């Protein structure tokens, strides 16, 4: 099969979407398929001939390479003989992918990687918080309506879309995660850099530091833990944040206000090749966000043998087995503190959770994702090229819904589709 992936971001950017796309592409190519990538940015040294870079906006300090408005393909797309187009976002590059699919009559698949309305609701801008969430829902609804199939990485994400009356042919396919690799002496080396002994528990958060991630709760929990009656062997625990984002300066200030400067380290963004070193150096992992579509870092952490604490809401709650590989807790500093306390005082429990996590992480290998995504591609192709009768049925159903909604004085549900296979 010949596949074209359209994404708003790709290497050298490091985030969950890029990791998912890279893992999917490599797994599909290992299975003998051809996978093209269309993404903004300048050509990279490790780009191959099937990666096409789109012109980007001149924002050198922005962590992402943003595509210029109204991008155009700079090669003859028809010559690629693509069987299916797979979009990763509903914005500039995603729209280009959808328009290309329409122009060349190619089946379109869309993966929902983010709850954009929840991200907007957590924005620092009052205008964004007031206006953007509803706008994001409209964008999502319109884009899902254009797709022949919509992939969500968790049941929670699918149900969230359904709750917003976004109807589509849905398939639940968790993103595949490759186990990170760590250098032989990385644990001792990084702990020495932080001034920690081998016995000092190291708590890790790894990911983007944005307002919706609620990293502030982890700092508050650390302050509460410091005041608790921890055993001498673990009372000098340390907390490290790997990653960067718009909330970092605030969190660094909060760290000072809480008197945690000697217990907390912000190391910023690290190359992907060094991510495994930080997992290896740590003793447990925390993800305090409740708006994850999946939470791929949890799978990475489990694959490295770390017990995990995350929130009992959102896609991340489907990754961790509560009481087996970690704890699912309410999104409060007191709940997080309680879970941290349990794991800090019981190294054997940490070991048991870590071993169970290694086993659980194996179900999320990239090869498993690629196999399921191929099933989605085939179903999308079947739907797309057998849609003549379906379009007539859809028109009749839409007309009936509009008449019903009009009589009920409610807003019609645009682009209604019957739900199907998952």
Structure keywords:
disordered C terminus; alpha/beta; 7-stranded parallel beta sheet; Rossmann fold; single chain; 42% helix; 2 domains; 6-stranded parallel beta sheet; 422 residues
* Rg, alpha carbons: 23 Å
Count of DSSP-assigned helices: 14
* Total domain modules: 2
CATH class of the largest domain: Alpha Beta
Low-confidence stretches: 389-404, 406-421
- Sheet/helix structural class: alpha/beta
Distance between the termini: 21 Å
H and E string: EHEEEHEHHEHEHEHEHEHEHEEHHHH
Q: What strand line-up does the widest sheet have?
A: 3-2-1-4-5-6-7
The overall average pLDDT, rounded, is 89
CATH superfamily of the largest domain: Glycogen Phosphorylase B
Number of strand elements: 13
The CATH topology name of the largest domain reads Rossmann fold
Helicity level: 40-55%
CA-based shape = globular
Main β-sheet description: 7 strands, parallel
- The appropriate CATH architecture of the largest domain is 3-Layer(aba) Sandwich
Beta-strand percent range: 5-15%
Could you write a compact summary of the structure shown?
This protein is α/β, with parallel strands linked by helices and 422 residues long. The protein is built from 14 helices and 13 strands. It is 42% helix and 14% strand.
